[in-house]
Amino acid sequence: MVNFLINKLKRCRVCGSTAVVFIPYANAAFCKSHFIAFYERKIKKTLDDYGFKGGKVLVGVSGGKDSMALIYALKRLQNDLNIDLYAVHIDLGIHEYSEKSKKIVSSFLSDLGIEFEIVNVRRFINASIPKVVQTSRRPACAICGLIKRYILNSIAYENDYDYIATGHNLDDVSTYLLKAFLTHRSEDILRAPTPVSPPKKEYKLVGRLRPQLFLSERDNQLYCELNHIPYIDDPCPLSSGASLFKYKLLWTKILETNPVSQINFVKTVFETREKIDESVQKLDFCKYCGYPTTSDDKICAVCRIKLRVNKLKIKTDNRKH
Ligand code: AMP
Ligand code: FES
Ligand code: ZN
Ligand code: ZN
Question: Of 4, 109, 245, 263, which has the fewest CB atoms closer than 10 Å, so is most exposed?
Answer without folding.
Answer: 245
